[in-house]
Amino acid sequence: MEGLGVPRDYAQAYFWLSLWGGVNAAARAKEHLSDDEASEVDTLVKDWQEQHHLSPEVEAAWNIPN
What we know:
Low-confidence stretches: none
Oligomer: single chain
Number of domains: 1
Shape: globular
């Protein structure tokens, strides 16, 4: 999101942070997008999630408290 070594791309940041970065981080990236841009990225996130299901074992491991 900060563009360290690459151009800033808030849409890409919002996409990846929506998948793995947590709600607060994704919200910070989303602040830089128009409503239409955010909606388009939300659709891409939903499509990605539908195509990349986690196995039950991985999902269980992901939810183990630290």
